[in-house]
């Protein structure tokens, strides 16, 4: 599948929006989606999430986007952007 740049940007923006909304809802965060910068660290100093929250993030990605995050793949959990990159990468492989 060959997408135009506009389609790629739109798809990425939609995933970012949906992911932020789901994380706020499932983790009961006192944020609005615009408050969470895409490069803000999810764990530790950024949003202050812990290992239990990391598990919930993994479950959120799996249930909302149908993408499984392998055990030990903590690099995907660094930020919203790294999660979105991972989701898109996996989805693109599925579309091939």
Q: What does the model show?
A:
The protein is mostly helical and 96 residues long. It has a single domain (5-95), classed as ACP-like (Non-ribosomal Peptide Synthetase Peptidyl Carrier Protein, Chain A, Orthogonal Bundle). The chain has 3 helices and no strands. It has helices at 5-26, 51-65, 80-95. Helix 1 (5-26) packs across helix 2 (51-65) and helix 1 crosses helix 3 (80-95).
Q: How do the strands and helices of this protein lay out in sequence?
A:
Blueprint: H1 5-26, H2 51-65, H3 80-95
Helix pairs in contact: 1-2, 1-3
Features:
96 residues; mainly alpha; Non-ribosomal Peptide Synthetase Peptidyl Carrier Protein, Chain A; 0% strand
- Classify the fold: give the CATH topology: Non-ribosomal Peptide Synthetase Peptidyl Carrier Protein, Chain A
In percent terms, what proportion of residues is strand? under 5%
**Number of folding domains?**
1
What is the mean predicted local confidence, pLDDT? 92
Task: Using the coordinates above, name the CATH class.
Answer: Mainly Alpha
Principal-axis shape equals globular
* Number of separate strands: 0
Largest sheet: none
* Order of helix and strand elements from N to C terminus: HHH
How widely separated are the two ends? 7 Å
In short:
The chain has 96 residues and is mainly α. It has three helices and no strands.
